[in-house]
Amino acid sequence: MLEAVMVDEARRRPSTLADKLNHLFDTMHPAGRGPYGNEEVASAIREQGGPTISGTYIWYLRKGERDNPTVKHVEALARFFGVPPAYFFDDEAASRIGAELGVLNALKDARVQMVALRAAGLSSASLDTIVEIVDRVRDLEGLPRGDAARREPEHEDP
Question: Quick one: DSSP state of residue 77?
Fold first, then answer.
């Protein structure tokens, strides 16, 4: 189940600063509530002693109308969302962090936590069976499978 989340996140790799920032707004918010607003983030950054930043400036960044923020603004946004500043500049880091954020976001659902916790400690064969069952249910619901995240052992050709 978590593999499928990681595959979905890997497929949706944000590439621009605006994409990456919007991805954080979409995924990084407290369970049970919607995404933060631009002004809410700007106010929180200022209250935490960060640089002067406005909700309008964040809106420009999210729309791609500004794409060269200061290092202080990048650091403040990264700190607010709990990611390293490299997330905004390094596509490989952004991809890896994006997948991790997807897993963390999925784990906000108490039912997903229940499944994961109950699966802990099971044998490899039992875990494989559970993954097969989850994949079949995902098929029934029209959701993508997690097959790409599971890698078969590579066989070298002689």
Answer: H
For 100-152, how does the pLDDT look when each residue is reduced to its tens digit (9 = 90+)? Answer: 877 777 776 778 778 877 888 889 999 899 888 988 898 898 888 764 333 33
Quote the tokens at residue 71. Answer: 């290092």
Q: How much is the average pLDDT of 16-21?
A: 92
Q: Phi and psi for 84 in degrees, rounded to 5?
A: -75, 150
| Domains of the chain (ranges, CATH numbers) | 14-89 (1.10.260.40)
Question: Phi and psi of 129, rounded to 5°?
Answer: -65, -45
Cβ–Cβ under 8 Å, residues 42 and 99: no
CB proximity list for 31: less than 8 A, separation 6 or greater: 108, 109
DSSP per-residue codes, 21-37 = HHHHHHH-S-TTS-PPP
